[in-house]
Design goal:
Number of strands: 21
CATH topology of the largest domain: FAD/NAD(P)-binding domain
Shape: globular
Distance between the termini: 89 Å
Strand content: 15-25%
Structural class: alpha/beta
Oligomer: single chain
CATH class of the largest domain: Alpha Beta
């Protein structure tokens, strides 16, 4: 009897009891998806979310980058710009619009910000409904099972968990070597929360964030310049990137190519004087702006997490967390996914899906891993650009130029005809293996509603779509998307790829 009691007490001492099954640090789209899924599967879950105000003091609620300072407000402001173009087109279609049209920033901003606040509230309600403990606190790791949580007022508490999940995403970077950059500039963390119009704006950078912001600013009638050090849309197909920027230039956005800013100074008038260098000539130039928007990249939110002392391995160059195929870090029981993870797409839908799959694995309900191949995306520039699969450059690098076939077409949307809009940048291409069944490797499309077009074709990639499958698909007429199932001219042929007739 005494021996049995001793064995039982030994078993009890080997079992460690935790406050939670899972603690998620980060209340963005991925962290919320992971925490809600885990709770639905019966786990005891807490999620910590605290947003440090931006350098300009901008702050926001639960939901992360996408909800507050990314996808959602960006798409709504993009829509505001598209409506401006639609009003101009409307006259050609017979609408009697008297007088010049103008845009009021304050009205748009208030409506967008109110919608975002409603989403913040909705997320809080969802967490409560799904029995997830929400803590508006900053989390840092003590060990592989312990998190310290800190409130804005400095109140501290300790949480223990069987598993800790990091999903803190990233924040925009400021250049550190340009005088006045931080003091007088803003980032995408600020632009969507401005109460007043940014006025004449210089956007520094040529990422999708930079081009999307410059696009909607131009679209609502603001004098906007994009300063580009090297190339636009790095990582995307460069032929498509050129079409996007060509359209933007014809749309009214100015570009300062091969230029780098040197300093930003606030003048007595309140205007910002920017001095920059032309990298091709070495000459210096200057101009004044009301707003300077830095879009020069993002940095992962890892510094305050205490990862180094635990031995969680980071990529030295990017600062992101090294993860395995199952989102595990180099320390047991600590996981990371989303923008903070090295080598993962910085996209909301991938973080959401990865978070849900991780929750199912932690709950012992599944062993399925996230598939990061052939993830579709869209750049919401004035002429939208949607893509899925490999760029032409990547396809050439992996398969060799002689082993791929690129089918392409320049097309004119029917809607552009009566409106007499220039369609010279409306283009699509389908990159295939040249031999065998001609498996599709990449699909690219510039045009209206590019996201809606690309989403449907993206499913084909999960099914191993081939060029024959594309041709066997009946198009919907008259649409721009149908041009993808009709494409038959190859780049290799050198023939004119302009679509004529139906």
């Amino acid at each position: 009897m005494r021996g049995s009691i001793h064995r039982f007490s030994s078993i009890l001492s080997s079992i460690r009891f935790y406050d939670y099954d899972v603690v998620v640090i980060g209340g963005g789209s991925g962290g919320l998806a992971c925490s809600k899924e885990a709770a639905q599967l019966g786990l005891n879950v807490a999620v910590l979310d605290y947003v440090e105000p931006s350098a300009k003091g901008t702050k926001w609620g639960l939901g992360g980058t996408c909800v507050n300072v990314g996808c959602i407000p960006k798409k709504l402001m993009h829509q505001a710009a598209l409506l401006g173009t639609a009003v101009k087109d409307a006259r050609k279609y017979g609408w009697q619009i008297s007088g010049p049209i103008s845009h009021d920033w304050a009205t748009m901003a208030e409506a967008v910000q109110n919608h975002v606040r409603s989403l913040n509230w909705g997320h809080r309600v969802q967490l409560q409904d799904k029995k997830v403990k929400y803590l508006n606190m900053k989390g840092s790791l003590v060990d592989e099972h312990t998190v310290t949580a800190l409130t804005k007022a400095g109140k501290e508490m300790t949480l223990t968990a069987k598993n800790i999940v990091i999903a803190t995403g990233g924040r925009p970077k400021f250049p550190t070597n340009i005088p006045g950059a931080v003091e007088h500039g803003i980032t995408s963390d600020d632009i969507f929360w401005l109460k007043e119009s940014p006025g004449k704006t210089l956007v520094v950078g040529a990422s999708y964030v930079a081009l999307e912001c410059a696009g909607f600013l131009t679209g609502i009638g603001l004098d906007t310049t994009v300063m580009v050090r090297s190339i636009a849309l790095r990582g995307f197909d460069q032929q498509m990137a050129e079409l996007v920027t060509d359209y933007m230039e014809s749309y009214g956005t100015k570009f300062a190519w091969k230029c780098v800013p040197k300093s930003v100074e606030k003048l007595p008038s309140g205007a910002l004087q920017v001095i920059w260098t032309d990298m091709l000539t070495g000459n210096e130039h200057k101009d004044t702006y009301d707003t300077v928007l830095w879009a020069v990249g993002r940095a992962p939110e890892t510094k305050a997490l205490g990862l180094n002392k635990l031995g969680v391995q980071l990529n030295k160059k990017t600062g992101k967390i090294i993860v395995g195929v199952d989102e595990s870090t180099t320390v047991p029981n600590i996981y990371a996914f989303g923008d903070i993870s090295q080598g993962r797409p910085e996209l909301t839908p991938t973080a959401i899906k990865a978070g849900k799959l991780l929750a199912r694995r932690l709950a012992g309900r599944s062993t399925a891993l996230m598939n990061y191949d052939n993830v579709p995306t869209t750049v919401f520039t004035p002429l939208e650009y949607g893509c899925v699969g490999l760029s032409e450059e990547e396809a050439e690098s992996r398969h060799g130029k002689d082993n791929i076939e690129v089918f392409h077409a320049f097309y004119k949307p029917l809607e552009f005809t009566v409106a007499e809009r220039d369609a010279s940048q409306c283009y699509l291409k389908v990159i295939c293996e040249r031999a065998g069944v001609q498996k599709i490797l990449g699909l690219h499309f510039t045009g209206s509603n590019a996201g809606e077009v690309t989403q449907g074709f993206a499913m084909g990639f999960q099914c191993g779509a081939t060029y024959s499958h594309l041709l066997e698909t009946v198009g919907i007429h008259p649409t721009s998307a149908e041009e993808l199932v009709k494409v038959n001219i190859t780049k290799r042929s050198g023939l004119d790829a302009t679509v004529t007739g139906c």
